[in-house]
Amino acid sequence: MAILDKNARTLHTRQYHLHVSPGDVGKYVLLPGDPARVLMIAQHLDNPGEIAFHREYRTVTGFYRGIKVSGTSTGIGCPSAAIAVEELANVGATHFIRVGSSAAYRPEIARGDLIVNTATMRLDGTSAAYVDPRFPAVADHFLVRHLIDAAQDIAAERGFKVHVGVNASSDAFYAETPELVEQLQEHRISNVEMESSAIFTIAHLRGLFAAMVCAVSYNYTRPGEVDFEGENHALIAGWENAIAVALEAIARYEADEDMP
Fold this sequence. Notes:
Blueprint: H1 6-10, E1 28-31, H2 35-42, E2 46-54, E3 57-64, E4 67-72, H3 78-90, E5 95-104, E6 114-123, E7 137-138, H4 141-158, E8 162-170, H5 178-186, E9 191-193, H6 196-205, E10 209-219, H7 233-255
Parallel strand pairs: 1-4, 1-5, 5-10, 6-8, 8-9
Antiparallel strand pairs: 2-3, 3-4, 5-9, 6-7, 6-10
């Protein structure tokens, strides 16, 4: 009985979910969750053009300091983020930087601050379909280094703080119990979001490179500051800062002759 090999069937073709084709995207891709944030990325690029917008996946491509860069929204959670990375890799992308939102656990982290994560605790189901439960989800060291350097250099000018730590990546936004939060704090987990474990894991397995810089939406240790109804101006400013940091890191990485 013949079995469909999805990887072989979809390589170097127009992609089923993203509707992108070879040549449509750059080597570097920024990965926000929200399609609206892809338009924010486009404002930082020269000659940006929308390539496709299908389901939760919106893709734009332009240039930053002469470097071809794309932005693709992943939607919410690891299943859709995994599809985005797989299909972008199928058409030539090799370096991925998630520019996301994240809730903080450490009390010194404030709304609007940026966090660069070195690794993620895998609380998702998608990465478990790819690797052993004991396998770590780790960001690429060199992308992380350039993100940290870029963030620290830009922070004073833009007025934000930079934090570095290990995060958790969870499937269930509403399932965090006080017991789970306490456990993660005991593990010195800095923050939680919903996509990086799949992005880091798949990038490693495919011989690709991935990292993440997140803007902080709120802090679990300050429940009085949490507002799910109003507009979070600190987070919006954080998104802009995260995009600026990611693009600066890409420029530095590209100029570094030792980088793959």
